Amino acid sequence: MGAMAVLPYRPAPFFANKNRAFWNLQSLGWAGAFLLRGSSTIANGQPLSSLIPVLISTVTGYSVTLLMAVAFRFLLKQRPIVTWGVSILTVVLAAGLVAFIDAWVFSTQNRSGDTAGLQLFLGAFYLSVTLIGAWSALYYAINFYLTVEEQADQLLRLETQASSAQLAMLRYQLNPHFLFNTLNSISTLVLLK
User: Fold this and answer.
1) CA separation for the pair 53, 93 (Å, rounded)
2) What pLDDT is attached to residue 3?
3) What is the pLDDT of residue 146?
4) How far apart (Å, rounded) are the C-alpha atoms in residues 136 and 30?
């Protein structure tokens, strides 16, 4: 039996490629939200057609949070008061947009229902604020973690450079003494013939 070549597997850190990590988390998170809301809908005895509003809501949330990610990337570079204030406003506005679309889709699908529009909107708004607020908190937490990791790596590199510089300085201090001692030994040997 021939030996099979095995390529060495080197696992890369999850956040080695930040862009890919973002897309993976974004897709997995919203897929999980869809599965959770979809299974809840089916478990409550709703027909399969009621998954359509859940899917539309999930796609809306996915799209809105992509726009929020662009805004948050810009806000990360601002003063904390600006970052927090504009982020909270962004979450409320985004949740309002998602809730409006959710309420509109639900009322369009259930024309015979007697649910009040404002009640429907407020229920959808509560769910949207929860989801988008959690998404935003996770976004900022991950970016904070990555910043701390980056600073720790930079500190380690600086400590390594400082140690190397200190060793080089000691070497330079020893070299003149070594040269002097060597020349002194040579001159002593020349004098002694």
Assistant:
1) 20
2) 59
3) 87
4) 13
Q: For the chain, how are helix, strand and coil distributed in percent, rounded to 5?
A: 85, 0, 15
* Closest to 15 in 3D by CA, of 178, 145, 123: 145
The pLDDT score that the predictor gives to residue 87 is 93
Which residues of the chain fall short of a pLDDT of 70?
Answer: 1-5, 111-116, 193
Q: What pLDDT score does 183 carry?
A: 77
Structure-block tokens of residue 185 = 């030994």
C-alpha to C-alpha distance for 69 and 79, rounded to whole angstroms: 17
Handedness of CA 23, 26, 30, 31 (dihedral sign): positive
- Among candidates 188, 54, 83, which has minimal Cα distance to 143? 83
| CA triple 33-35-39, angle to 5 deg | 120
Element (H, E) at 149: helix 117-192
45 alpha carbon, distance to own chain's centre: 37
Best CA proximity match to 86, nearest among 70, 105, 104: 70
Q: What is the pTM of this model?
A: 0.71
CB 32 within 8 A of CB 24: no
